[in-house]
């Protein structure tokens, strides 16, 4: 695992040698070339990445605090790109509620080493205020607009170290079914095929998904593709330590049915209880047909559970 010291030795100065993309090319053009490192320290926790706080002095003499995540190998490159694009999309809609994404790229002097860089926010790891948080999340969903009008995302994104299905689709039912198959493929690659999974999968794809999702797009109804955070459990949220505003981070986004986000909240251990769900729907009403709502949430929860089951397996599996 890389340490802040080894990174400092490797990158020397300037702080970062090359950026593959900026949110705004004119915003901070001096950062990679004129910034000087003042201090660095490990910050936060990640199972798969080196994470750190970096205090820098910009070329104009002003101080700035940054957060950097470093990942290795080709999968790591895809992960930091996916996180940058996800956070940039969210930042464009609710800028006060996410750290400002700055860039992502690859070190020239350290092989197969990739970074995601964003502004630093001092975060209290407490549940965000229910009213503020649910209003913010509903605004993200309501104000977002898929660039293609379809479900999916424009780059691959990763939930943890697992790729998600993000290819564009006109139909929510079709997109979700492909996402579920993708999650099951991760499960089978880790634990091997089983007759039970085969039997249950047939029922899920042939009966359950059409029964619960097809009515959303039937009889004149339609589903708006909304921007998801993608992994909105309580560990990826908190409060701004200064303003107490809700904060979310570690996004792995795609455009989906807004209720999909709530499938992450269904397990009791996730701590976003009924009051959060009710608060959210006070801003974004339940989709029609309402009578299928709980079934849809259970279906979305199943997809989340399938992905989280794979997290318990070793990283060296596909």
TrEMBL record:
<dbReference type="Pfam" id="PF03881">
    <property type="entry name" value="Fructosamin_kin"/>
</dbReference>
<protein>
    <recommendedName>
        <fullName>protein-ribulosamine 3-kinase</fullName>
        <ecNumber>2.7.1.172</ecNumber>
    </recommendedName>
</protein>
<dbReference type="InterPro" id="IPR011009">
    <property type="entry name" value="Kinase-like_dom_sf"/>
</dbReference>
<dbReference type="GO" id="GO:0102193">
    <property type="term" value="F:protein-ribulosamine 3-kinase activity"/>
</dbReference>
<dbReference type="InterPro" id="IPR016477">
    <property type="entry name" value="Fructo-/Ketosamine-3-kinase"/>
</dbReference>
């Amino acid at each position: 695992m890389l340490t802040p010291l080894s990174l400092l030795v490797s990158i020397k100065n300037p702080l970062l040698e090359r950026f593959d993309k900026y949110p705004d090319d004119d915003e901070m053009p001096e950062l990679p070339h004129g910034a000087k490192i003042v201090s660095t320290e490990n910050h936060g926790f990640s199972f798969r990445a080196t994470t750190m706080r970096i205090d820098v002095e910009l070329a104009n003499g002003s101080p700035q605090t940054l957060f950097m995540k470093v990942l290795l190998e080709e999968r790591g490159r895809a992960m930091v790109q996916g996180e940058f694009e996800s956070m940039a999309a969210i930042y464009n809609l609710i800028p006060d509620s996410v750290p400002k994404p700055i860039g992502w790229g690859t070190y020239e002097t350290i092989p197969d080493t990739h970074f995601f860089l964003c502004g630093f926010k001092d975060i209290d790891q407490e549940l965000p205020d229910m009213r503020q948080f649910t209003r913010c999340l509903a605004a993200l969903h309501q104000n977002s607009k898929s660039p293609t009008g379809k479900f999916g995302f424009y780059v691959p994104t990763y939930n943890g170290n697992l790729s998600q299905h993000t290819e564009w689709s006109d139909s929510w039912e079709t997109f979700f079914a492909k996402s579920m198959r993708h999650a099951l493929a991760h499960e089978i690659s880790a634990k091997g095929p089983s007759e039970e999974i085969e039997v249950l999968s047939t029922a899920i794809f042939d009966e359950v998904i059409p029964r619960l999702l097809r009515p959303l797009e039937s009889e004149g109804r339609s589903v708006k593709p909304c921007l998801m955070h993608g992994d909105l459990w309580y560990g990826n949220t908190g409060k701004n330590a200064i303003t107490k505003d809700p904060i979310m981070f570690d996004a792995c986004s795609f455009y989906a049915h807004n209720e999909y986000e709530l499938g992450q909240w269904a397990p009791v251990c996730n701590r976003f209880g009924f009051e959060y769900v009710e608060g959210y729907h006070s801003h974004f009403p339940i989709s029609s047909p309402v009578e299928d709502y709980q079934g849809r949430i259970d279906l979305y929860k199943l997809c989340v559970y399938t992905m989280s089951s794979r997290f318990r397996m070793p990283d060296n599996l596909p």
